[in-house]
Specification:
The protein has 562 residues and is α+β, with helices and mostly antiparallel strands. The protein contains 11 helices and 25 strands. It folds into 2 domains: 368 residues, DD-peptidase/beta-lactamase superfamily (Beta-lactamase); 128 residues, Jelly Rolls. The chain starts with 54 loop residues before the first strand and ends in an 8-residue tail after the last strand. Keywords: Hydrolase, Signal.
Length: 562
């Protein structure tokens, strides 16, 4: 599928403790709170053991908060009301427990590209089948890695070893790994549906396609990589791609609502996509939306798969389980490790596993870290898997119904996955809780104290943060008049676990504040502060009150923890 790209660099969090060199450089107050020894269960970065097979359950079973899920409902209902999407299905699972599975809006609403309403629009259901678009690439990649597991395929072997025709036009050295990581040198997109008269001629056109840059020199997301990999699977297995994926992946996993080329009887269970004029197809409903996949008979390595949110969750849980689901093993643990390891350290911002996209903050938002994996699809589909949080987030929409040229749903993806992250509690190891700066785009939150430090002093506090590295910052500032502010130390950005920090405050300071500032998109899990105190040079604590604008106190300790 064609993938929209922009100028935004896709960065997540990295291990940065900005104040580590400044910690403990002054006297600490005697009233420093002692952490509660026992950590809470289900905390951020400490989710606990996951179930091997998915089941439905409650948020409380996996420690997730309710309010962010209500916000997801608000966001999706607003997107439908504003005609950004006709409908959606949202699914969230943590530790093998499905805590949200909800349908919104309509699966089919319009008859044509003039937005003429259907006489009987089709309501969205939780088991509505979606054109998964480029999420199909994950299944092609899984098929490839199964062949690697079987010893039939080598990742660093030339593709031409398996498909001799691929060597045409200087592609002799392109490897299987380079196809999986979009570093082959192929162009981003071609109008394949305008070439040839049938599948065979179009496949030959792909195999003959020249490169636009040297293999391995750059990351360029291209459907052609996966189209070729689909052909490799067919050549080595002796099966068509759809038959292989059905037999080796879907059936063993029990994904009975996932398939290529759904039958006509399923149409009323399928989300409609766009009204296509070029090629002249009319309302595409029950057939693959992607023109190139359609021209290849509806089955291709880059697109063509249809499925439900719950089936997709099973596939994601298999990856979290290390390649197995229940009693069925689909991939070796080694194959999963390779698929989820960054293969492109030379291209920061384009972290890529084998098939899986990694650390893509542009749609994963606060669920993004170095191990987060996922994929999106042009039709409006999204999958995010967070191994560190044992969490799966799935947002399936039919945003191209009835036309593709609509408002981008990237902000919507960001917002809903941000709320999923927000629902996972940060372990605040003190009974009284901690200040939280909140989440938001282009946000400013301040926590300010008025104090008279004529001869200077020390600011001491405990802090934890997950901030979008080099884009969102936590500033600590001092002022003599409340108008001009001086930075204390370096701004916080990136990532730090709970750390005790002490900073020198200059003489004459009357105001001290913590200021959290975000850019226009992508959040981390946020910034937390515990018991900030101001100390005079003799170590005596000043009695001050903190004025919060955008900050609020949060507690994760229940009565039984105290």
């Amino acid at each position: 599928m064609k993938k929209r790209t922009g100028a935004v660099i896709m960065l997540c969090l990295c291990m940065v403790n900005t104040w580590s060199t400044l910690a403990m450089d002054g006297p600490e107050g005697e009233k420093k709170a002692k952490p509660v020894a026992k950590p809470i269960s289900h905390a951020w970065d400490g989710p606990g053991k996951s179930l091997n097979i998915l089941r439905s359950g409650k948020l409380s079973e996996v420690g997730m908060a309710e309010e962010p899920f209500r916000e997801i409902d608000v966001q999706l209902e607003a997107a439908i009301r504003q005609n950004q999407i006709p409908g959606a299905v949202m699914l969230v699972a943590r530790r093998g427990v499905i805590v949200k599975e909800q349908a919104y809006g309509f699966a089919a609403k319009y008859k044509d590209d003039e937005f003429t309403p259907m006489q009987r629009p089709l309501a969205m259901q939780t088991d509505t089948i979606f054109d998964l678009a480029s999420i199909s690439k994950l299944f092609t990649s899984t098929a490839v890695m199964q062949l690697v597991d079987q010893g039939l395929l080598q990742l660093d072997a030339p593709v031409a070893r398996y498909l001799p025709d691929f060597a045409a036009n200087g592609k002799q050295q392109v490897t299987i790994r380079q196809l999986l990581t979009h570093t082959s040198g192929f162009p981003a997109y071609i109008h394949l549906f305008k070439k040839g008269k049938n599948r065979e001629e179009r496949m030959q056109y792909v195999l003959d396609q020249p490169l636009v840059q040297p293999p391995g020199s750059a990351y360029v997301y291209s459907d052609l990589n996966m189209i070729v990999l689909g052909a490799v699977v067919e050549k080595l297995s002796g099966l068509t791609l759809d038959a292989y994926i059905q037999t080796k992946i879907l059936t063993p996993l029990g994904m009975s609502h996932t398939m290529y080329k759904p039958t006509g009887q399923l149409r009323e269970h399928i989300a409609a996509t766009e009204y296509q004029s070029v090629p002249k197809r009319g309302l595409v409903w029950g057939e693959v939306q992607d023109e190139n996949a359609w021209s290849l008979g509806g089955v291709s390595g880059h697109a063509g798969l249809f499925g439900t949110a719950r089936d997709l969750a099973v596939f994601a849980q298999m990856m979290l389980n290390g390649g197995s689901y229940g009693e069925k093993r689909i991939l070796s643990e080694q194959a999963v490790a390779w698929m989820t390891e960054n293969q492109l350290p030379a291209f920061p911002g384009d972290e890529q596993g084998l098939g899986w996209e990694l650390a893509r903050g542009t749609y994963m938002d606060a669920l993004c870290d170095s191990k987060s994996m996922g994929h999106t699809g042009f039709t409006g589909t999204s999958l995010v898997v967070s191994p560190n949080q044992e969490t799966i987030g799935i947002l399936l929409t039919n945003r191209v119904h009835p036309i593709r040229d609509t408002e981008s749903i990237t902000p919507l993806r960001n917002q809903v996955f941000r709320q999923v992250a927000r629902s996972i509690p940060v372990d605040i190891p003190w009974q009284e809780g901690a200040w939280f700066a909140g989440m938001g785009d282009d946000a400013q939150a301040t926590l300010t104290a008025t104090a008279n430090l004529a001869t200077g002093g020390t600011l001491a506090f405990d802090t934890w943060y997950r901030l979008e590295n080099e884009y969102d910052f936590g500033y600590i500032e001092a002022s003599v008049d409340g108008k001009e502010w001086r930075l204390l130390g370096s701004p916080a950005t990136g990532e730090s676990d709970w750390t005790r920090v002490s900073l020198q405050v200059p003489p004459g300071t009357r105001y001290v504040r913590f200021r959290y500032a975000t850019d226009e998109t992508i959040n981390g899990r946020g910034w937390f502060l515990h018991q900030p105190v101001l100390l005079q040079p003799n170590g005596e604590e000043l009695s001050v009150s903190w004025k919060a604008e955008g900050w609020k106190l949060e507690q994760t300790r229940k009565e039984e923890d105290r």
